[in-house]
Amino acid sequence: MQRRAILSPLLSSATPIAASRHLRHCPCCHHMSSSSSPPASLPSPLPDDPSLTRAYITAIHTLSPSVRQLDLHILCGKSNSPRAPFSFLAGQWVDLYVPNLRHCGGFSMISSPESLPLLSLAIKGSPASRSIHARWAHTSEGAKEGDVVGLRVGGGFHFQMTEEHWMKGTRLVLLAGGVGINPLMSILAHVVGWVEEREKQQEGGKEKEEEEEEGIEKDKGRFQVSLIYSAAMRAELIFEEQIKEWTKMHASWLSVLFIVTRELGGEGAWDGRRERMDGILVWEAVEGEEGERGREKALVYICGPSNMTDEMERILIGGEEEGMEGGRRLRKAQVVTEKWW
Questions:
Q1: What end-to-end distance do the CA atoms of the chain give, in Å?
Q2: Which of 213, 225, 256, 314 has its Cβ near the most Cβ atoms within 10 Å?
Q3: Can you give the chain as a three-state secondary structure string?
Q4: pTM across the whole model
Q5: Cα-flanking dihedrals φ and ψ of residue 126, to 5°?
Q6: Segment 48-62, tens digit of pLDDT
C-alpha cells in the first residue's frame, strides 16, 4: 500500500504495540536496545543501499482476517551502514524492502517513536493480494521471524506533541477509515506517552498542580483528542481493545467513536453505531462544546480510502463553493490528509 501525503504547515509511557522487553543501552545506535540477541546468522538479500536501515522480524501476529502485524527490531553496528540513529515522527511511513524483492512497499508505523528500537507495522492483505509485499506478509512462505528487512522513513503526515498544544488546548481530531488507523495509531500512542510522561513529572504534589492550573490559558480550554474510527466489520477494528484501554485511562482528554458500517445482524452482532462518518459526527468532534472556538484550535488528521478522505476534506475545508456544512470551514493548514495511490 503506497501513499502520498498532502502537506500542511503545522505549528509516552504509552503501551507500545510491540512486545515490551528488558532494555539496555546500546552505544552503537544510541537507543535503548533489547537484551535479546538478533539471529545468529543474518543473510541479507536486500538492495545494497546505504540509505536503508536494517531490522529483523521478532514476531508476527494476526490482528484480523485481513491484517497482520510485524514486530521489528532495528539492527545496529556492522549490520547497518554508519548513519544517524534510525528515527521517525509519529504518523510517518517506511519504504519496506523484503528479502529477494527489488522494489519496496509503503507501510505506516503503528508504534510510537518512543518505542524504538522496536517498531511495528500492520499490513493488510491476503495470500491472493495483488501487492507482492502484502502477499509476502500473509503467507507462510513469506515473512518469518528472523527475516531481515530494509527500512527507509518518509512522508509528511506526522504529528509531534508539544507543551504548546497542551497549554493552549489544541483539539486534535483523528479520522480513520479501515486500515487508515495505522498512522493515527502511531500518533495516538505518541500523544498518550507524552501525556503520561508529563503526568509523572507533575507528581511533585499540589503546589505543582496549582502552578500548572495557572499556566494553562483558561480561555483556550483543555487539550482534547477525538478519534472517529470506522471499519466495514467489527473484526476490522483491529486496535479496538487497546484504544478502549487508553480511553478509560485518559477519559478527561481522550474520546473515541467506533463505527461499523457493514456488519450483519444476528447473535453477537455489532450493537454500536452503524452510520457512515458524516458532517454531523465530524463537526461534533472538531468543535466539541466550544463551537467556533473549537474550530479555531482544531488540528485534523485524516487517513483512509480515497473516497473517505476526499469527503472529509470537502466537509472540513470545502472546495471552490462557499460555505460547506452550514458555513463552517477550517483553514487548509488545519487539515492533514494521507492519500493512498
A1: 8
A2: 225
A3: CCEEEECCCCCCCCCCCCCCCCEEEECCCCEEEECCCCCCCCCCCCCCCCCCEEEEEEEEEEEECCEEEEEEEECCHHHCCCCCCCCCCCCCEEEEECCCCCCCEEEEECCCHHHCCEEEEEEECCCCCCCHHHHHHCCCCCCCCCCEEEEEEECCCCCCCCHHHHHHCCEEEEEEEHHHHHHHHHHHHHHHHHHHHHHHHCCCCHHHHHHHHHHCCHHHCCCEEEEEEEECCHHHCCCHHHHHHHHHHCCCCEEEEEEECCCCCCCCCCCCECCCCCHHHHHHHHHCCCCHHHHHHEEEEEECCHHHHHHHHHHHHCCCCCCCCCCCCCCHHHEEEEEEC
A4: 0.83
A5: -165, 170
A6: 787 889 999 999 999
- Per-residue pLDDT for 260 more than 80? yes
The label of the residue with cell 465530524 reads 282
What is the number of alpha carbons within 13 Å of residue 18 lying toward its C-beta? 25
- Average pLDDT score over residue span 68-94: 82
Please state, in angstroms and rounded to a whole number, the distance separating the CA atoms of residues 339 and 341.
7
Sign of CA dihedral 71, 75, 80, 85: positive
Burial environment of residue 228 by CB neighbours within 10 A (0 to 12, 13 to 18, 19 or more): buried
Question: What is the rounded distance in angstroms from the CA atom of residue 72 to the CA atom of residue 120?
Answer: 6
Q: Measured between alpha carbons, how far is 162 from 165 in angstroms, rounded to an integer?
A: 5
What's the sign of the alpha-carbon dihedral 242, 243, 247, 250? positive
Distance separating alpha carbons of residues 188 and 232, to the nearest angstrom: 22
Cell of 26: 546500546
